[in-house]
Amino acid sequence: MNIAKAEKRLFSGTTHWVIQGGVFVPFTAIIPGQAITYVLRRQFPKLAAEKIVVVSTQNGLKSYWIYDEDEFEGKGYWCFKNKDYVQRVFRRWLVFKRRFYQEIERLEKTDISRQPLKEFQRFYRLYLDEYSLPLITEYYSLGGDKFVRELKRKYAGYKRLDDDIIVFTQPPKLSFLQRLELDLLQLEKSLGQKRLPTRLAEFQRRRPEAYRDLERIQRRYFWVQFNYRDTVPLSLEYFYNKLLALTKMTSGKKNQRRQELRNYRLSLAKTQFKASRRTSLTSYEMRALKSVGWAGHWQDERKQANLIANYWCQKFIKLFAKELGYTVSEIWHLTPHELFRAYRGKKVLRPELQRRISGCAYITFVDGQEIMMSGRRYEACWRRIAGLNLPTQTTVFSGIAASPGRIRGRIRKIETPSIHGKNLRPGEILLTYMTRPDFVPLMHRAAGIITDEGGLTSHAAIIARELKIPCVVGTRFAMRVLKDGDMVEVDATKGIVRIIK
What we know:
alpha+beta; 3 domains; Glucose Oxidase, domain 1; 22 helices; about 55% helix; five-stranded antiparallel sheet
């Protein structure tokens, strides 16, 4: 596709971009771009996104997934009003989900090094199908934000509105991180009151049955801190340290937390029923808010599949690098279609791949057209995207009040926890594009959280409510305007962030 035509098509009709930052490389981030555009179009054309941009710099350490805010918000609002259609999508996804996990089970028993390309092509098709349908939860996030804004205008004098919104948008089931926490709590309880040895080897010798239970937990959750670039499985030592940490908690706190997690669904149902008896919201409004929570749980299931799939993508990438004579970093900066062409002898030249490692932009459209930019064309395109609607000289940000509270503190910007996490000091306010499971240890140290992206069911919102710390999500511009050390006031009851100095 011609670059000039691609740029013209990209910016046509777009006035607001959503820029989600994170750690990912083009190869793994391109797959969701393909999934939500032309792959979703084959199944449910009304829900397919028109265009997606993936920007990657510094070998994937500073990257962005970008889409048209107005388009996603409009599709999210449409989903609210067409629940039966969305349920059709969900039922179709259950079929794709089953096929995907069956493929994962098959791969675990297969020597993929014998025919890596053939094995990947089969995996890739099933992964695209599984990934495409739950990506509509991205629409729910923005559509939900718009719906909440309308509720706040309608019920401006209703004091319990924020509490009601939080109650009705709670996900209906535990997240995978909560399930991990519950499994560890259950294992710790089964061990009784005896003190655990500090060394894992000694634990294996003394408690062989419990050691096998811990191994099962490790096999079930080894992927929880993966991202779209780094997929080193969590060790058994990691989970044992988590178990040891639980032994330092008081019995009362452990029992309380265990009961909270075990009875989550029943407790939520009771809480929502009580809220429904005294709320000023209509039945439709309550159902719409619950659908936001349902979409949040679906998004969590999608993320689980994504993290597991990224693990397999990286296993394949190492084999491709060996067979094609590329480095792993160079394979990271191919598109899947370029990879297939490389096996037919049409390789992307190494100088171009080195430019992409420094910085590149991938664009895909709903009709399957795609293009990769590097060098000056990429830089110009990225500046135009990043500068669109960027406020100047602003001292106040508004977002979604995700976890109530009010606090003053200094900003600490964290893009990559493994690199920047050590800079976060206790009492500082964590600022990032959006949080992921690998942010959780930092969130425990933070006095408050601000994110550019996310809604009421985002990872940041859910964890902040559990930690009972102020959190404002969906500010859109905070990461591009605020600097490390800025003093801010976070009013997470109103969703306001104010720069003090």
